[in-house]
Amino acid sequence: MIWDVEFILGHMNYWLFIVLMMVGFYIVVAKGNLLKKIVGLNIFQVAVFMLYISVGKITGGTAPIFPADLTGHIEYDPSILYSNPLPHVLILTAIVVGVATTSLGLALIVRIREGFDSIEEDELVEIERAMMIADNAEHGSSMGGRA
Amino acid sequence: MAGDVEIREVAMTLHAQLPALQIVVPFMTAPLIVFFGKRETAWWLAFLSCSVSLVISYLLLMQVIGGGFISYQMGGWAPPLGIEYRIDAANGLILFLISLVATITMPFAYRSIQAEITRSHTLFYACLMLCFTGLMGMVITGDAFNVFVFLEVSSLSTYVLVAMGAERDKRALTAAFDYLILGTIGATFFVIGIGFLYMATGTLNMADLADRIQGQESSRTVRAGFAFIVVGLGLKAAMVPLHLWLPRAYTYAPSAVTVFLAATATKASIYVMLRFMFSVYQPEFVFHTNVLQILFIPLALLAMFGGSFVAVFQTDMKRMLAYSSIGQIGYMLLGIAMLNQSGVSATMVHMFNHGITKAVLFMGVGAFVLRAGSSFYDNIGGLGRKMPVTGAVIVIGGLSLIGIPGTAGFVSKWLLVQAAFENDMWPIALLIVLSSLLAVIYVWRVFEVIYLQAPNEWSEASDPPMTMLVPMIILAVACVYFGIFTDLSLGAAGTAAEALLNGSFGMAEPSLDTSALPLDVPHGAGDAGADATGGDH
Amino acid sequence: MARAMRARMQPGETTDMETFTAIILSMVIPLVAMFASMALPKQDNLRDGITFVCAVATFAVVLVILSNVGGGSTAAVELIEVLPGVSLAFNVEPLGLMFALIASGLWILTHIYGVGYMRGNNEKNHARFFACFSAAISGVMGIAFSANMFTLFLFYEFLTVSTYPLVAHKGTPEAVSGARTYLSILMGTSIALLLTAVIWTYALTGTLDFTKGGIMQGKASGWIVPVLLGLYAFGIGKAALMPFHRWLPAAMVAPTPVSALLHAVAVVKAGVFTMLKVGVYIFGIDFLAETGASEWLMWLAAYSIIAASVVAMCQDNLKKRLAYSTVSQLSYITLGVALATDMGALGGGMHIAMHAMGKITLFMCAGSIYVAYHRTEVSQLSGLGRAMPITFAAFCIGAISIIGLPPMGGSWSKFLLMVGAVDAGQQLMIVVLMASSLLNVAYLMPIVAKGFFMAGDDKVPTGFAEAPLFCWLPPAITAFGCLVLFVFAGEIQTFLAGMVN
């Protein structure tokens, strides 16, 4: 395969998106601390926001604001190149959703810390396994000892 | 005379605005509930708004059950730029299911929640209404990005609802957190898929997307978009192997929440998946066919056998039912993977029938939790005799889950097996019936526990209060009713499958009389608007 | 319901309103008895009285159908179209009518017997017991009057579910595990095999209606036919064809009235009745004969006849012995279908009646012995005949009928089966039937001989000490019935002839 430098550079935004997304994804999967997971999740989401925003940008384009006169009549000049506003608008919504997710995740972490006294995943798993074993010991008799 | 005309005009306007009201009514109820802040008021508001939604969804379903669709432009902005709500027989049926279950769950929730949650009841109802709005919105909207927004509305409120089970078992918190991580990843995948589609086509309206995807089937962007969308929605639909969040979330959530989620949440996601697969991407899309046949059938079989098998070995009835749900979702995916009308309509019917069946069973669990404190088998032993109505309702629900003739579950199983035969997939037909044998085992264990085990001496259990009993009875009757009178479910599902498989209706004029719709330019503005949204950079 | 109650007319067939109402009533009246039983858990006499009246009424309703329809058959009346082309529909035809007559007639006797048994034995939960019993009868009536395979399947499963609590009635670990076997085999086979067969049939032919001469002609051929027949034969677990027979001995943990009516008459006969219906009205006797698809089934049935008889000989528990005897006798009827001749099918149909009368007698006698002396094993029966002469005489008559000797009803059905075997050119089957008769003698007659001629232990009274009246009267009546059936066998044959030609 020939390394087409132009191809690689031309799709720079995609490469950045992929790298950023994978970094975020890796943090979510690999880090045991719940807070770090939320951070990873944010990076992951931001990567996608970047993808959208970069798609909406048109080289040389300007902000898509049409000047209007006092009567409200819109002057549309076809010679001016505008960027595509729609992805930006969409991502505005997505950012709001992301913020909500983050805050909810953080709230849950606070509650988990109160309940379990830990926000490390491995410790939580350990506590839950102990709870599960206790459940089975208490209620497993209905399985005829098969639990 | 003048007054009459006025009333008629108001009625006409309201009628025309039904699709918007379907979403706006429950959505606005949520802040209202918080504003009033009283427990009883909150419940009444929520119940009222669910009932209104039910009526609206019924009216909408009746308009589209014979075929055709309603197109509604949000705020008067014409699609594809504006957000379009589009109701056909397929989502009409799902909207009806969701609002039906929500309305019936409300009275049940009142006492059940009192017993399981001590504080923040108003916030609970507000969250439930948001979740309800989100699910309805996902199903009703015709705009791909709007699906994401509603998906997140429903997901975020679901995380909160699940976490509210923490008073009984703190594991609800970690279950909610895990669900949050996985759900967000799923939703983000979905957004990536939508982004790819937008890059390839420059539009977000589903009907418009369908038109523009034609001819680009081999485009990698379009294919990658498909994969991302399927994975994203598959996660929300708890399709194996993306199901890991489901058993924990269902087990630790408050009973009323589990009832609502089990009957509606996964169904809404599966519907959206169906819509993307068949209406946005055409069934002839070769890559898509391969994915479905090679990937979905084994995964569906794995879910059917794996989910049911794990369910057999549970010691907690609620958890058992959660695993059973994973198995049942397998049946739905199998119907989709058959890629033809009989398969898809079997899936639609199963979504509906399984929704009411699982709602009945989870309500039964809720009643047990209310009386016995938990749903572990050794705690609910012999309760069927002490709580005769609850026991009878669980028997009906259980029989429907197995698929005994005369119950709703039988109808959908029959359709699925028949679809398999029609496609010459008779080994799969055999596997479907074999996997339902596992259902016999796990359901019958419940029957043995609640009837044949000796009751705990200390338990002075009796049937739950009327507010819980009546919803259970209504749904149990529905389980039998839809097993015998299948006009509604089969009729809607048949039309729905036809609508889905014939692809989108494109940006053509809707087949229904739209003169009553708010703007006189329902369509046609699409092409002009689409140019401004070009995706090159 | 615009399309409710739409009668599908076939030439020469109609269903008048009275007959239709009677069909519905025959299913509704037992349900009334069921609800009455559930509503009256404490008032024993009132509850059992209502059920008795309902049993008589059900029988009367079936008699009305008999007088209206005679040996003919009526058009199917569709109540509801459940799935496209598949509806809940009922009609009357000779075989089903005969089945309904037997079941409803014997219900009256079994109810009397059941009241005597449950009270004499101090069993618990009478209300639940009689409620489930009545529900089961309702299911049997539905099976008898089904006009298509779907309706039959619906009531078939209803029967399974409603009899499960009866088998588990005692609630002891043995009862629970017996009931588990019962349910897992019956429901397992019906869901895994029968349902597949039914849907497959529908996919092949587009209909499930019971039609004279079958619906398979020209729709199925080659390997599909024997495979489909196999799915039916094994799927109908209630027919207790080996190797799916184990539920029947397991069900013997139930109180004896259940074993008597349900596991000698209603449930097992529902199984072989379904076999006959499938053979005659789904496949068609001629079609089976042409394709030779049923030959393997004939050999399996023959094996089942002999093997179950041998197993019966080795059982010391009286009810288990009778259960294995039932397994063997049910295969007679399956054999009748598998022979694929008109005579074979007729013989099979008649055997339903003859075996029902004989076997219910035997079971009720076994129950009487249990009520009176709490003896369950064959080896404990020595000398009891002198204390309970009526019970043992009835047992003897029933046994003779099962063996197939004149002057008891069982001889005719066996004779017809042999004629059928000759028609089919399967002389070896005659040998099988004869051998089975000898085995029957070997496992049934020693019981009678022990009772009358061997000296009992010290707990057996020397004088006359019968079971309560309600326990010995019903078997005496059914024993007499065996004799009556011998005399009227000709009428039954003419009556049933309507189903084949």
TrEMBL record, chain A:
Its main location: membrane. InterPro entries: CPA3_antiporter_subunitC, NUOK/Mnh_C1-like. Keywords: Cell membrane, Membrane, Transmembrane, Transmembrane helix. The keyword Acetylation does not apply. It is found in: Cell membrane. It is a multi-pass membrane protein. The chain crosses the membrane at residues 12-29, 41-66, 86-110. This is Cation:proton antiporter subunit C.
Automatic annotation (TrEMBL), chain B:
Coiled coil: none annotated. Residues 524-537 have a biased composition (Low complexity). Residues 518-537 are annotated as: Disordered. The chain crosses the membrane at residues 20-37, 44-70, 90-110, 122-141, 147-167, 179-201, 221-240, 252-274, 294-313, 320-339, 359-377, 389-408, 428-447, 468-485. Residues 143-438 form the NADH:quinone oxidoreductase/Mrp antiporter transmembrane domain. One of its GO terms (molecular function) is NADH dehydrogenase (ubiquinone) activity. GO terms for cellular component: plasma membrane. Its main location: membrane. Pfam families: Proton_antipo_M. Keywords: Cell membrane, Membrane, Transmembrane, Transmembrane helix. GO terms for biological process: ATP synthesis coupled electron transport. InterPro entries: CPA3_Na-H_Antiporter_D, NADH_UbQ_OxRdtase, ND/Mrp_TM. NDH-1 shuttles electrons from NADH, via FMN and iron-sulfur (Fe-S) centers, to quinones in the respiratory chain. The immediate electron acceptor for the enzyme in this species is believed to be ubiquinone. Couples the redox reaction to proton translocation (for every two electrons transferred, four hydrogen ions are translocated across the cytoplasmic membrane), and thus conserves the redox energy in a proton gradient. Belongs to the CPA3 antiporters (TC 2.A.63) subunit D family. This is Monovalent cation/H+ antiporter subunit D family protein.
